[in-house]
């Protein structure tokens, strides 16, 4: 099928977009509570409010604010949304980006026979976020979650190599995203892409 892009959806009737979401959100692993919040984020975006607060979302979906925070974190971890930050007229601006959901929807529509693998990948990504939080001993900030998302989707680091870099940071008692990022970049330069590559590289210096 033709690749589904956000630009394509801009001119699509809202009912058609809503039907796409309603037809496939459950297959993508989104629950009803997350769906309600996701639809509200889209609604706010249409009013040019790109970053509704958890308080605003809690008011319209009639849920406790603590559940909103948790749902937003889960939606980021599962790859439904991401937080984008930029400077606009010398001011720091955050906004929710819903493109990841439609990228995953496109993948699902284009490869129905690989749904099981896709869901396994998303579960692995979600597990990676949880493992990082366990090692850091706290919930990740939106910026930190965006960093992990960039490692996965911009830099195309595998969950395996990110886990290895996390382990390296923990062993060196350097629980820092900057430290992990430096490890990943160094390994990338050395063509280290998995545990076998790392083992062979280290064997050269033993």
Would you write up a description of this structure?
The protein is mostly helical and 206 residues long. It has a domain at 6-113: Arc Repressor Mutant, subunit A (Orthogonal Bundle), CATH 1.10.10. It is 65% helix and 7% strand. The protein is built from eleven helices and two strands. A two-stranded antiparallel ribbon has the order 1-2. A hairpin with a 2-residue loop joins strand 1 (82-88) and strand 2. Helix 4 packs across helix 5 (65-77), helix 7 runs parallel beside helix 9 (159-171) and helix 9 packs across helix 10. The termini are far apart. Residues 1-13 have low confidence and may be disordered.
The CATH topology annotation of the domain at 6-113 reads as Arc Repressor Mutant, subunit A
How large is the count of helical segments? 11
Order of helices and strands: HHHHHEEHHHHHH
CATH architecture identity of the domain at 6-113: Orthogonal Bundle
How much beta, percentage-wise?
5-15%
Termini, distance in Å?
51 Å
Roughly how much helix do the residues carry, as a percent range? 55-70%
Numbering strands along the chain, what is their spatial order in the largest sheet? 1-2
Radius of gyration: 19 Å
CATH class of the domain at 6-113: Mainly Alpha
The residue-averaged pLDDT reads 86
Morphology call: globular
Family: Belongs to the DnaB/DnaD family.
Protein name: Primosome component related protein
Domain DnaD N-terminal: 17-112
InterPro entries: DnaB/C_C, DnaD, DnaD-like_sf, DnaD_N, WH-like_DNA-bd_sf, WH_DNA-bd_sf
């Amino acid at each position: 099928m033709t690749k589904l892009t956000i630009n394509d959806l801009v001119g699509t009737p809202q009912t058609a977009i809503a039907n796409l979401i309603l037809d496939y959100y459950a297959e993508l692993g989104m629950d009803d509570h997350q769906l309600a919040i996701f639809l509200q984020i889209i609604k706010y975006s249409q009013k040019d409010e790109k970053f509704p607060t958890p308080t605003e979302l809690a008011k319209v979906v009639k849920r406790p604010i603590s559940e909103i925070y948790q749902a937003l974190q889960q939606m980021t971890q599962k790859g439904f949304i991401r937080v984008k930050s930029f400077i606009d007229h010398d001011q720091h601006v955050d906004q929710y980006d819903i493109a990841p959901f439609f990228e995953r929807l496109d993948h699902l529509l284009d490869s129905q026979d690989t749904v099981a693998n896709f869901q396994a990948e998303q579960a692995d990504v979600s597990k990676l976020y949880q493992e990082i939080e366990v090692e850091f001993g706290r919930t990740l900030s939106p910026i930190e979650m965006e960093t992990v998302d960039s490692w996965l989707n911009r830099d195309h680091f595998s969950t395996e190599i990110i886990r290895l870099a996390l382990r390296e940071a923990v062993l060196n008692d350097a629980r820092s995203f900057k430290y992990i990022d430096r490890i990943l970049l160094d390994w990338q330069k050395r063509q280290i892409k998995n545990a076998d590559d790392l083992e062979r590289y280290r064997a050269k210096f033993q």
